[in-house]
Specification:
Elements lengths: L1 E9 L2 E5 L7 E4 L5 H13 L7 E7 L3
Parallel strand pairs: 1-4
Antiparallel strand pairs: 1-2, 2-3
């Protein structure tokens, strides 16, 4: 399943959201951690294995 994640930098963390899965909100400490944290939460919220998710992410600048 393709998972579209939006990452917004706020101080020390990247805050991650996705409209593909309800209640999808998490954070990552660095860019390399974004797909790891996204797959982990997606698996937790859906009950599917982490390997089912192909993470694509984009960046937004905070307002």
């Amino acid at each position: 399943m393709k998972l579209h994640v939006t990452a917004v930098r706020q101080e020390k963390f990247w805050f991650l959201t996705s409209n593909d899965i309800a209640n999808f909100y998490t954070q990552a400490r660095n860019i390399e951690e974004i797909p790891v944290m996204a797959r982990d939460l997606a698996a937790l919220l859906t009950g599917r294995p982490e390997s089912d998710f192909d993470v694509e992410f984009s960046f937004e600048t905070p307002e």
